[in-house]
Write a structure and sequence with these properties.
This is Nuclear movement protein nudC. The chain is α+β, with helices and mostly antiparallel strands and 193 residues long. The protein contains five helices and seven strands; from the N terminus they run ααβββββββααα.
Length: 193
């Protein structure tokens, strides 16, 4: 059962680890029950949909739209169909049939700075604050870009937990320093902007 960020913050380190472990196990179970496998990077989603061995491209019925995805065999109920979690760039998204037994779908995100909670909105969600991006991918970036991505991930995580972003933390720190230098000023009601 989901809990609020406040309740999570009140837990001990051990309780949090236990909670995270249980949440990850439940998430893994929910994701494993889906009729496809998926993984993501900040800019893209890759989905693998198993199909009966011997399936040919002409047997497939695949629809990739800005906010909709449907994969199935012609004349049958779709294996997966519904509204996408977020919008994609249709012209840069593709599908291929591998070994006549799996459809690989590559979706290019429009917003390349946001993790998806699920592929289709009606499917179980993952906790995007717990995503650990592949270090090799992060280390491939140049220093400036990597710093920007790490800051963005930190800020996204902070926002989802209702905590201040890195910029807000910097402003709070600057205000504290200023206050220490000027104790005669009452800044208790100061608004940070």
């Amino acid at each position: 059962m989901p809990i609020s960020p406040e309740e999570y913050d009140k837990m001990t380190k051990e309780e949090r680890e236990e909670r995270d472990k249980a949440d990850r196990a439940r998430e893994a179970e929910e994701q494993a029950a889906l009729p496809y496998k998926w993984h993501q990077q900040l800019g893209e989603i890759d989905v693998v949909v198993p199909v009966p061995k011997g399936t040919r491209g002409k047997n497939l019925n695949i629809v990739i739209q800005k906010k909709k995805l449907s994969v199935g065999l012609k004349g049958q109920e779709p294996i997966m169909a519904g509204e996408l979690c977020k919008e994609i760039k249709v012209e840069e998204s593709t599908w291929t049939l591998e070994d006549q037994e799996a459809v690989h779908i590559h979706l290019e995100k429009i917003n390349k700075q946001q993790w998806w909670e699920n592929v289709l909105t009606h499917h179980p969600k993952i906790d995007t604050t717990k995503i650990q991006p592949e270090n090799s991918k992060l280390s491939d970036l140049d220093g400036e870009t990597r710093g920007m991505v790490e800051k963005m991930m930190f800020d996204n995580q902070q926002k989802q937990m209702g905590k201040p972003t890195s910029d807000e933390l910097k402003k709070m720190e600057a205000l504290k320093k200023f206050q220490a230098m000027h104790p005669e000023l009452d800044l208790s009601n100061a608004k940070i902007s």
